[in-house]
Amino acid sequence: MSANALTVRGQELGEQLRVLRAESGFNLQSAARRIDMSPSQLSRLENGQRRAPAEVVTALLATYGVTGQRRRTALALARESDEHGWWQRDRPDFPERQRTLMSLESKAERIINYAGLLVPGLLQTSEYMRATLEETSMFSADAVEQRMATRMRRHAAVFGSRDCSLIALIDELVLHRRVATPGVLVRQLEQLVYWSTRDHISIRVLRNDRLHSGTTGPFQLIRQRCGHTVVFLEHLGSSLFVEDKQDVATYGEAVRKMLDLALPQQDSVHLIEDIARNIHSEAGNDDSRRSRTAHLAQEPS
């Protein structure tokens, strides 16, 4: 199957079938034998590289003893697996939506991420991540913990292997935006400097002196090792996976223009280091002023 024939839904279906097979105790050989298919064919199906006809999926689900909602979900994906693009508006559960993203990221050879108002999620420290979730007042305490756990699993999936390169495009304003305390932001900036030392991570800063094509909103461009490219757009209650060839090309052109405007890696890192030092210095001066004011307030008049 060519990269153009791959779909996000087809890969999601394949991943679900792989998990169901493992849970039922079948290996590739035994499961393939039960439905008169070769192990290599079943492997390609589970990797989303082979179309999964509804009758094959039905046979596999029967073999694995799958019933109820999980069966209905898999059969629905089988019916839609040829469709390009996927608006996951029927999945209110955040970890469930992120499961599709994590699967795509685990197969990626390159990820390009522009997060708009924040540091890209894959590069966020845990305290910065927690602060951004809590300060929006949009999520319950349980939802914050749920999102943090999911984000950390994404970290492990992407950074556990050097097979995937990451290009993070960061607006300069993000580097100044205070999150929680100055210390939280300083440590986040220091972590960006650390990430920049990794061979497979590139951090590029877009200066404030001009607008760029990313001002239309955050996005993530995911190119898989098989050549299939997907654009991921995340909203408060839904996720959108864009696969249309022309739409993907439009985001690719936006990335090229943003990279043309962005500072080179070394200059970006120097700017981040300067901003971190300035914030740290200002925070120290503020602490000194508060200490002096408190001392004066305690002195007798």
Automatic annotation (TrEMBL):
It holds the Pfam family HTH_31. Residues 282-301 are annotated as: Disordered. InterPro entries: Cro/C1-type_HTH (IPR001387), DUF5753 (IPR043917), Lambda_DNA-bd_dom_sf (IPR010982). Coiled coil: none annotated. GO terms for molecular function: DNA binding. PROSITE patterns: HTH_CROC1. It comes from the Bacteria. CDD domains: HTH_XRE. SUPFAM superfamilies: lambda repressor-like DNA-binding domains (SSF47413). Residues 17-71 form the HTH cro/C1-type domain. This is Transcriptional regulator with XRE-family HTH domain.
